[in-house]
Amino acid sequence: MKVMVIVKASEGSEAGELPTAELMAAMGEFNNALVDAGIMTSGDGLKPSKEGVRVRFKGEERIVTKGPFAETNELIAGYWVWEVTSMEEALEWVKRCPNPMNEESDIEVRPFYEMADFADIDPSGEILEDEEQLRQKIAMQTAHVCNYLFFAGRTEEALEYYQQHLYAKVGLLMRFNESPDPIPDGAIPENFSDKVMHCEFSIGDMKIFASDGCGDDASLAGFSLSITIDSEQEAHRAFNALADGGTVRMPLQETFWSPLYGQVVDKFGVAWMVMLPSNAAN
Where is the PhnB-like domain positioned along the sequence (predicted)? Predict the structure, then answer.
């Protein structure tokens, strides 16, 4: 079951008093324990009500009132959302929580409604189906899509080239022989133990994943990476660097959508579209 754990506001929180460093550390440990237990899904603290507003609905009228609000016992200063097996489990976790305030305080636990609670008014299940589609849509709106390139044993060479010519920044890099779990027999060629199992690098604001894969027969086809560069001079430089040892599919030239656009496949088999924005500087 999902519950909201509500930290009630106090005179101190409404006055904008910040927690002590010791309390911040204690709450950090508690949050880590919640995450490690797989219970905490979200949580945040709220600024005093003087930073907020209320909207009262009265027929067609909307009445806006700016904070602060006087009823401290009706306000909240923060919350968690937990996934627990029962209210009893939630209560045990709340008892372990450090006092969230520098004074006496209250924490309230409230279960969320579940669609099963509305079974009597949704006998056909149509509302439940719509709700499930809505949840799926929300989940996909926060998903992150990233290109994953397989260089068939040439990842390090490609990284060095992109660092030199496109000023790529390499983050995480792990080799097969650094894997915390043993690589199954026959999964990779014998000479691949020091090859790149996974790496992450960025060019501009584009993040890319890469690997040597599980052999030297991988091919890169059916897609292109698009890179937009504000400078005509730099666009030519980058295009020429990518074309060195590669294949030009379309030379850099003016098009109706860009003052300069071209297509090239670099020597590692990665297809690129290089372009200028319409307001680019020379």
Answer: 145-274
DSSP per-residue letters across 197-208: EEEEEEETTEEE
Please, are residues 214 and 153 in contact by the beta-carbon 8 Å criterion?
no
pLDDT digits (tens, 9 = 90+) for 4-58: 999 999 999 999 999 999 999 999 999 999 999 999 999 999 999 999 999 999 9
Total Cβ atoms within 10 A of residue 4: 17
CA neighbours closer than 13 Å in the CB half-sphere of residue 146: 15
What is the chain's Cα-based Rg?
28
Contact present, 134 and 140 (Cβ < 8 Å): no
Of 199, 205, 192, the residue nearest 148 (C-alpha): 199
Q: Which residues of 100-110 are buried (b: 16+ CB within 10 A; e: fewer)?
A: bbeeeeebebe
Reported as type and span, the H/E element at residue 173 is strand 169-175
| pLDDT tens, position by position, 112-135 | 998 888 888 888 988 888 988 888
